[in-house]
Known about the structure:
By secondary structure, the protein is of the alpha/beta class. The protein folds into two domains: 239 residues, P-loop containing nucleotide triphosphate hydrolases (Rossmann fold), CATH 3.40.50.300; 35 residues, no CATH class. Helices cover 39% and strands 23% of the residues. It is built from ten helices and ten strands. A six-stranded mixed beta sheet has the order 6-7-8-3-9-10, sandwiched between helices. A four-stranded antiparallel beta sheet has the order 2-1-4-5. A hairpin with a 2-residue loop joins strand 4 and strand 5. The longest helix has 18 residues. The two termini are 28 Å apart.
Amino acid sequence: xxxxxxxxxxxxxxxxxxxxxxxxxxxxxxxxxxxxxxxxxxxxxxxxxxxxxxxxxxxxxxxxxxxxxxxxxxxxxxxxxxxxxxxxxxxxxxxxxxxxxxxxxxxxxxxxxxxxxxxxxxxxxxxxxxxxxxxxxxxxxxxxxxxxxxxxxxxxxxxxxxxxxxxxxxxxxxxxxxxxxxxxxxxxxxxxxxxxxxxxxxxxxxxxxxxxxxxxxxxxxxxxxxxxxxxxxxxxxxxxxxxxxxxxxxxxxxxxxxxxxxxxxxxxxxxxxxxxxxxxx
Length: 281
């Protein structure tokens, strides 16, 4: 598979000079789902935001981000916005935080089509219906006239995915898109994302805390720890990793057979050993 986007030596730095992310190297190919896992605060979302060009004010990216041969870090703000509008689809954790509650879901879907694809009102509506049907929203014409509060969490996330696909992007950035859903809806949304990536032969970066989901959904997985990538492997080899941090994450998972046994945690002693391992790498 040919490389779609590649980061080399990527760092994300605050105005105070603190590195939130440092020396990140990763690749995403056409038709590939790449997972990024790690604890909260490990730098996963900041890496995604650096690729998307949506870092907070005062936070800057250093290093290289190459998309289809073009260096993104050289783009100005307006150029990055055009790139984002045409090439990227972003799916966030909480769909309700990213839709306007006083507009219908149809308005939400047609807005990107009318602004970024320059479609007329009728053409945008027809395409919105097609997209809704593609992501599994039944009775799409009626459902698009409903408001977000009338949708379940899983159905609204489907609508957000449809919006992310509306401009026919070649790269999807998914920031924990299943976390706010119950287990059944998580599986449905994950299967939907996978099918869209395969059918469209686009790339996807999938951020998650769920190690089993990453192993089941993704093709390859990167593990982040304190702003750095410390481990990488083919997804179905997750359990074979020998890196102490990845092993610690695996041991910290709840297990049905463990009964009332207390979950393992990454204590100070273990974290010191992990830090030593990372420093040697």
